[in-house]
Design brief:
Elements lengths: L20 H12 L24 H22 L7 H10 L10 E3 L7 H12 L1 H4 L3 E3 L7 H11 L7 E3 L7 H13 L5 E3 L7 H11 L7 E3 L6 H14 L5 E3 L6 H11 L8 E3 L6 H12 L7 E3 L6 H12 L7 E3 L12 H12 L5 E3 L6 H8 L11 E3 L7 H11 L7 E3 L7 H12 L7 E3 L7 H37 L31 H9 L22 H4 L7 H11 L7 H11 L9 H8 L29
Parallel strand pairs: 1-2, 2-3, 3-4, 4-5, 5-6, 6-7, 7-8, 8-9, 9-10, 10-11, 11-12, 12-13
Helix pairs in contact: 3-4, 4-6, 6-7, 7-8, 8-9, 9-10, 10-11, 11-12, 12-13, 13-14, 14-15, 15-16, 16-17, 17-20, 17-21, 18-20
Length: about 650
Amino acid sequence: MFKKRSSLGLPSLGLPRTLSLQETLSSKKKRKGSLPNKPLLSISTMPTIQMDRYLTNEGHQLVASYLRLTQIQNHIIKGTLHKITEKDVDDLIKSYEGISTPVYETLSFQELNLSHDECKLLSKLLKADKITNVRNLKLAKNHLFGSSIKVILESLQKNSTVEILDLSHNHLSDNEAKWLGKLLKKNNTIKQIYLTHNRIGSDGAKYLSKALMINHSVERLSLESNQLNSNGGKFISDMLKVNNTLKYIHLGSNNLQLSGINDISESLKFNHSLISLSLDINNISSEGAKKLGESLQVNQTLTHLYIPRNNIGDEGLKFICQSLRKNSALIYLDLEFNSIGNDENTEGAKALGNLLENHYVPRAINLTHNIIGDEGCVEIFKGFHKNITLESIIFSHCNIGLIGIQAIAESLKLNTGLQNLSLNKNSNMGADGHLILAEALKFNTSLKGVQLDYNFAEWETVGNSIQQSLTRNHFLQKERYNTAINILIASRILLNPTLQQQLPTSLSCSTSPITSPIMSPVMSPVMSPLLSPLMSPITSPMLSPPPSPKKLSFIKSSKKKKIFTKLPFEIQETIISYLDTNHVLTEDEILQVVNFSMKKSTLGLTKDQFLSKCLSAYYPFSSDVRLWPTESTDQDFSSSDRF
């Protein structure tokens, strides 16, 4: 009845469809007899399960088909396309029909040297976009060019799911750029295109620029390390004057020369969408910096400007600093490797110091590999104690010694805004410089990140002291934020009865907009902990010992008394004052919070907006204070790589 098992696999059992599994086992038992001492389970007591249909040849075919399709899918995920055929892909796509969940979110085929046949298989997957649902297509380092890339680009013309296209490190020339331009004229789904390290020249820049004048989806374009030259810069400039979608563009290492930089600078006066521009390694010089500076006086949307390795010198830095006095948008300025401070020149440092003392942009500066020196540090930090908006400054490899560190330390004792300071690779500061900085941080209440070398014998003691100061600052800042939010909620309850039905329900520090409804202010559970120190002055832990409440001048205004609730205003003043138990806020800051609470227009704002308005700045704890967003969104790439 049964066939022997094959050593090469498990063949069909060959059971006739009219014979059930139970009958088969019963007949087998009759032939062999039963073991007298081991009546484990009688066949008559077994439930009747009709298993025939699962053990037929048809069942085996279904299993074999499933295993085959799974293997094909695994080959696609791994990128081993050479192990499958067009029929395999067709069968796999057919099997996906009816599946609503995405099958391939990301296809990462990098460094595989894809052949033309493999590219054709990939194009089949891309054409079946509604089924495969590919959103991120990474094809970097595949030596793609000619017909291989053409078949992929043609398939993307009909694709409506791919949003990120990475063709970096291939052999794309002007001809391939022409095909890519045709794609961008028809496709309005792709949002990010990476074309770094290819062979695209000025003609290719023309094709891409004409397409982007029409395209309304691409937000990020990286053309770093191509061969655009000055003519290509002119075409890019023409596109930027028209395009209102592009937000990030990387044009580094393209030999744009002064004329190309001038054209791009001119386009910034008309562009209102670009927020990040990278022009590194283009030999801008001081003249190019002057043109960029003139455009920054007009442009108020660009937030990130990267111009490292451009030899702008002190003269170029002066032009940029002068222009930024009329700019309120720039957040990040990258000036790495720009010959600033050469020949002991301090003019650029002096201009930067004046900017930081009297203006509120930028919020992060990278000065790595510039010879700032001690005298330059003295100039930069002369009035820095007045600055409250600069969050991060990087002085790695800047030839800073003991005098420079002393200038930085004295300024840090009074500065209240700086969050991160990098002083790596400044060997001249020595152990004494580290000690001076550690002592200064005992008085600083804002800095939360410091990068040092600690290359001396007593580094551990100094390192522990610095770490304690930074940790203290972190918790102090968190307490300031929580206290401000608690005072906001209490102020809205006590001082503005017209907003009672639109107030938050808890005192917790939330990132959501502060607009939740609440109960009547007198009976609200939120008010119980606020009133407890007044109702139970002996047993309340908040009054052991009681802090001296701040006398807030705004309470004495007769005009504001009219909108108070029925509680006496002295009690309201005391409640608000007791919320700042450790006196982490100044009277002016509390007044800012109260004034904020009195305005109905502020109910829709988020926590970030509230803290920025009332405390001058908001520094999220979830973000790394050393880093800022760059022109790249790849998670494997961070702005620290630029430093």
